[in-house]
Task: structure prediction
Amino acid sequence: MATASLTLIGKPGCHLCDDARTVVTRVMADLESRTDAPTLTLDEKSILDDEALNAKYAEEIPVLLINGRVHNYWRIDPVRLTTALLEFT
Result:
């Protein structure tokens, strides 16, 4: 079975980051029961804890990476994310 590793980069107190987390976790929950979906993992990182991430993404958070590649930033569209994740199967 295919796998996809999601990384959500943000910081505490960021309302867009909270919105992105809600979208990502909802999409993951929706895909969990599908047989055509990859196995998904989610890791959250704060730009406040990592100088390199802060330097790279401070003006773009939240940033969502799929398998280390930028999927989107600022606002995460659930349909676009679902479509991208289903391409891993």
The domain at 3-86 is CATH 3.40.30.10 (Glutaredoxin).
